[in-house]
Amino acid sequence: MTELHRDLPKRAWLRIYRVTGAITLISVALSVVFTNMIMEIFSAGINVQGLAVSILMPLVLGGPMIFVLMLRQEQLRHANGQLEHLATTDWLTACLNRGAFTGAVTRYLDRHPSTGGALLIVDADDFKGVNDRFGHDAGDAALRLIAGAIRQAVRSSDPVGRLGGEEFGVFLADSDVAAADHVAERIRRAVSAIDFAPDGMPCPLSVSIGGATYETRAPFGELYRLADRHLYEAKNTGRDRVAIMQAA
Fold this sequence. Notes:
The chain has 248 residues and is an alpha+beta fold.
C-alpha cells in the first residue's frame, strides 16, 4: 500500500475514497430498505438483528470490493496519463516533442482561425561548439537550461516544444508583431543571463529567434516556413538576434 500511495497522486486517492464512501452509503441505504420490505412480508418488519445485518453486509463485503475496483480504475487512468505524457514529451528538456507541439498549434489554428498569434523558432547559437569543447553531456545540460529559460519567459499556457537538436518552438496566442517581439526579446535576454560553466569554465549561451505572426487563418506549415526564414536572417546578421515579421 505504501508503494501505491507513491504511485498515485493525491487527487486520485481523494477520488477513490469519495466514490467508495458514496457508493457504500447508497448500498447500505438500499440494503436497509429492501431488507425492511422483505421482513414486512414475512413478519412484523425489520428487527434489530435484521437491521444490523442489512448495515454490516454492504460495509463488510461491498466496501472493500468497491475500493479495490476504484483503485484499479485509478491506477489504469494514471498509467494511461503517464503513457500519454511520455508519448508527447521530449525526454531531455521536458518540453513538448515535435509531433505534440505541431499538433497542439495546428489544432489551435483550426479552432481559432481569426484570433491572431505568433510562432517563434528559437535556435541555440554555435551549439556545435559547446558539444565540441565540453562534450555532449554538457550540451544536454545547456539544452535543459535553455528550455527552462524559455518556459520561464512565456506564459504557462504558451506551448513550448523541442523541434529537434537545439531548435525550439514557441506559440503565442493572441499576439501581434509588437507583443511577439517583446516575448522573443525576453527569451533572448533570459538565455543570455544563464550562468553556464561546465567544468568551471564559463561558456556564454545565446539564441537567435525567428518569428511569424498572423491576423487571419494561416496554416502551420506557412508560419513555420516564414519563422524559419527569419531565423536564418537573425543568424546571418550576427546571431543573438530577433527577427519577426507578419505573415502576408
